[in-house]
Design brief:
146 residues, mainly alpha, 67% helix, 0% strand
């Protein structure tokens, strides 16, 4: 949702009001609701679960996002660029595992393949962080910033 807002594709007010009231009016509030519900609903249980109410609302929110965001032509048009960016990051980190964080570089030194470490490293990146790393690696810095 944060990315959708930054891109101007959706706003918080596009989310149905009953979902905003129940789950929260920001990504942070919704995550807080989900986490607290998971903890409370799972306490004393044999499995991790959500309450029926919050679980149903989460699936309704997910359906809303699929209908209004994930299949939106403006969002879909960027998928090829995102795929290419992730592919380039994978190639770079597979060839230069020492450029990953210390944890992942250590895993490679301990015998894990650079490709596996790169996959795990990139999968943990946020969209914003992956774009920042791509810029650092592939976009030349202007002469006045060297």
């Amino acid at each position: 949702m944060d990315d959708a807002e930054r891109a101007g594709l959706l706003s918080e007010y596009d989310i149905p009001e009953h979902l905003r009231k129940l789950l929260g009016s920001s990504t942070r509030e919704r995550l807080n609701t989900f986490i607290h519900d998971l903890v409370e609903s799972s306490e004393g249980q044999k499995e991790i679960r959500m309450s029926d109410e919050i679980g149903a609302a989460m699936f309704e929110l997910r359906a809303f996002l699929y209908e209004n965001l994930y299949t939106n032509p403006a969002a879909k048009s960027e998928e090829t660029k995102a795929e290419e960016m992730v592919t380039q990051l994978f190639r770079f980190y597979s060839a230069h595992p020492e450029e990953m964080t210390a944890e992942y570089a250590r895993r490679v030194r301990a015998g894990e393949t650079a490709e596996r470490a790169a996959l795990d490293y990139i999968s943990g990146m946020t969209d914003q962080y992956s774009m920042m790393k791509f810029r650092e690696i592939y976009i030349p810095k202007s002469w006045d910033k060297l």
